[in-house]
């Protein structure tokens, strides 16, 4: 039996250690039976709850009082067992808060590769896009409320199942997770929204020369340059 544990965190900010996990959601995908199990969720004690992050998940400091601080081992204890891998949508965020004892799959990076033409690669947009296409059938009750750890983990588990059903393998997705985001289109400048094949050579070179350019964007630009050089060889 292969179990992939999908996780989602709600937090008090974006950068630990100042930011803390205030809610954990887990949802197992039983891959051999292609079954998404019921999600579990719990709150965590935190020192503060800034209003700008509370506005996203609506968790108050009072709700977190009396709960233990986030302990990563709780996701892998005797109650839930140790999965073969974990997954998260934008796993780079969750893995800021703990070191995973098992391989990691980022469903966001995988979705960019498997469904480059999706209208959006956010968790919620993919859920409805895949649902409209008849590729997933989540229980709507378990997907609510949005921006809470349990429902979001449950939604991501269905996205992960659809990735497997559309031919992606666990080995591939683990490898993609270790690489930068493969963006299907250029996201900036006068070529915003254009396929990389339509971006001028000079613009690609300009991207590589910018010291403040995101490394993921430089990687995509360099990848397109390498493709062109290979095609002309």
TrEMBL record:
One of its GO terms (molecular function) is nucleic acid binding. Residues 3-169 form the Exonuclease domain. This is Exonuclease domain-containing protein. SMART domains: EXOIII. CDD domains: DEDDh. GO terms for biological process: DNA metabolic process. Coiled coil: none annotated.
């Amino acid at each position: 039996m292969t179990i992939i544990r999908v996780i989602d965190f709600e937090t008090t900010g974006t950068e630990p250690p100042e930011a803390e996990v205030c809610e954990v959601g887990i949802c197992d995908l039983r891959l051999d039976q292609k079954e998404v199990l019921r999600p579990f969720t719990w709150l965590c004690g935190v020192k503060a709850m800034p209003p700008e992050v509370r506005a996203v998940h609506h968790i108050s400091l009072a709700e977190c009082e009396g709960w233990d601080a986030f302990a990563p081992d709780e996701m892998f204890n005797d109650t839930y067992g140790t999965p073969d891998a974990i997954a998260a949508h934008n796993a780079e965020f969750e893995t800021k808060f703990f070191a995973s004892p098992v391989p990691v799959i980022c469903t966001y990076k995988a979705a960019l590769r498997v469904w480059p033409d999706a209208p959006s690669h956010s968790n919620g947009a993919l859920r409805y896009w895949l649902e409209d296409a008849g590729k997933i059938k989540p229980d709507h009750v378990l997907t609510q409320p949005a921006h809470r750890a349990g429902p979001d983990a449950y939604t991501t588990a269905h996205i992960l199942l659809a990735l497997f059903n559309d031919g992606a393998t666990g080995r591939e997705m683990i490898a993609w997770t270790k690489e930068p985001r493969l963006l299907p289109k250029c996201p900036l400048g006068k070529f915003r929204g254009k396929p990389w094949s339509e971006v001028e050579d000079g613009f690609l070179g300009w991207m590589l020369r910018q010291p403040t350019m995101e490394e993921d964007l430089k990687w995509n630009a360099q990848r397109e340059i390498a493709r062109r050089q290979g095609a002309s060889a």
